[in-house]
Specification:
Blueprint lengths: L2 E2 L1 H8 L3 H7 L15 E3 L2 E5 H12 L11
Antiparallel strand pairs: 1-3, 2-3
Helix pairs in contact: 1-2
């Protein structure tokens, strides 16, 4: 298991840290119901690199464990 800070994850993904934080928010009706997987450690947010690598695969398949209702 490799645990990363938001800044470390942002660097690996070539995105801004604000994007990383935004993707951890669960916004079922607004954006993505399947938020970026994270570990809450008190006041800190950390990321397991293996979980993060699996996340885009779920996005590509268009599925997640949280399915959006069809309207």
């Amino acid at each position: 298991m490799e645990i990363l800070t938001p800044a470390q994850l942002a660097e690996r993904l070539h995105v801004k840290p604000t994007w990383v934080y935004e993707q951890t928010r669960k916004r079922t009706d607004v954006r993505n119901a399947d938020s970026l997987p994270y570990i809450k450690m008190g006041l800190y947010v950390r990321f397991d690199w293996n979980d993060v690598l699996a996340w885009p695969e779920r996005q590509k398949r268009g599925g997640s464990k949280y399915q959006r209702p069809h309207r």
